[in-house]
Design a protein that fits this description.
There is one protein chain. The chain is an all-alpha fold and 104 residues long. It has a domain at 32-102: Valyl-tRNA synthetase, C-terminal domain (Helix Hairpins, Orthogonal Bundle), CATH 1.10.287. It has three helices and no strands. The chain has helices spanning 4-19, 37-65, 74-102. Helix 2 (37-65) runs antiparallel to helix 3 (74-102). The mean pLDDT is 86.
Length: 104
């Protein structure tokens, strides 16, 4: 008939239930999707492509660091600067693409 003792019993049951840790999956749920054949081939080729671009950028930079480089023909200097800029853009794109493919 619901007196103080009944209220006390119900209250301890409620406290015990609310203090129990909830069972949750603490492991990170990572979406694991398999890359398509084309994407996997692209991902496999990116390290070599990045290495080639870095070598070419280093070569162009070395060439441009020569004090006599800028004494040459203006057109040749402009072409070399444009080529360096283009290679740096391609390198940046490769790194972005690599990150996207790795996170899929």
């Amino acid at each position: 008939m619901g007196g103080y003792n009944d209220w006390l019993r119900q209250r301890t049951q409620q406290l015990n239930q609310s203090s129990k840790p909830k069972k949750t999956d603490t492991r990170a749920k990572k979406k694991t999707t398999k890359l398509s054949y084309k994407d996997q081939r692209e991902l496999d080729a990116l390290p070599d492509q990045i290495e080639k671009l870095e070598i070419e950028i280093a070569d162009i930079s070395q060439q441009m660091s020569d004090p006599d480089f800028f004494k040459g023909a203006r057109d040749q200097v402009q072409k070399t600067e444009n080529r360096l800029s283009e290679q740096q853009k391609q390198l940046s794109h490769c790194y972005e693409r690599w990150e996207i493919l790795e996170n899929q």
